[in-house]
Design a protein that fits this description.
The protein is mainly alpha-helical. It has 15 helices and 2 strands. It has one domain. It is 80% helix and 1% strand. Strands 1-2 form a two-stranded antiparallel ribbon. Helix 7 crosses helix 10 and helix 11 crosses helix 12.
Length: 356
Amino acid sequence: MTKGSQRRWLGLAASAVFLALLLLHLRQNEEWQSFSWDRLGESLLHARPGLLLAAVASTYVSYLLRACRWQFFLDPIKKHSSLWVLFAGQILGFSSIYLIGRPGELVRPAYIARKERVPFTSMLAVWLLERVYDSLAMVLLFSATLHLLRFAPATHHGRRLLAHWQQGGNAALLLTLVIITCLVIFRLRAEQLTAAAGRALAFLPASWRRGLRQLARSFAEGLNVIQNWRDLTASIVLTALLWVVNTSFLWFTFHSVGLGSMSWMASALVLFCAALGLLIQLPGVGGGYQVGVILALTRIFRVSGQQATEAAILVWILLVIPCLALGLIIVIQEGSSFRRLGGLAREAQEAALQRQ
């Protein structure tokens, strides 16, 4: 077994243990002592179909918006890239993540690089840039939600928690401004800063330095993608629309199972908590995202454990099943498989490292 495989399995084991302990803690809570699986099934069967269809549609719209954003990112690299290829790349990439966990992240850049006949390193740079955009968008959404959402926690502990969160939101907003400033500086002085970092990290093993150097170069290439105001404006607008759609997906899902008290802004706060849970992701199961939804609904908005679990399971179903269904159709139509896509991503990554 390679060192990479060992690290992967150790990471999965640690995530599984953490999730198991967290779920055990939740299970011991009085709210979950009376949890009913029969009621869960009945609630899911009687969810409002119109809102369910709207939630499914919003998932596909989110992938389309990601594809449009990639098209603007690719514009300096390749003019007139195929929107269908970019859309299929999003579907297959996220399907791979749902099936095999975080290693599936590289399927998107590898698939698009092969289909569009562009260097994998360039697509890796675009992928890194996308991560920056989405991370900053989430921080801004979190900060805005805490300032605009109006609700009063029922307990003293809840009020203290909200006050801490608001302080954290202010700090996150300030940190975002600092990060944006650093990105602008790095964009203008990428080569000099990369060389200086290489000298400062000379004490690290050669393999680590090589990986960090590749990461810095890819990151610099990603920032170089934004070469004019048109691409910058379009990418920002599409990012804002993407997270409006992502929040709307949760709002549709919550209201479909009777959580009519959840406002759109409240759904945005739940989305942020769920996104934090993505740090823990088990292949084929997920886990962290659903736990984030449950904790946000129960601890912040005082939703019962039964309703919160129903909502979290339905969120998982509506996120994963439509994506996997369309992803399966695409791989069958192309005569491929998810295993081959995973191999394609590994091969592209190894080839990129060998060229360093």
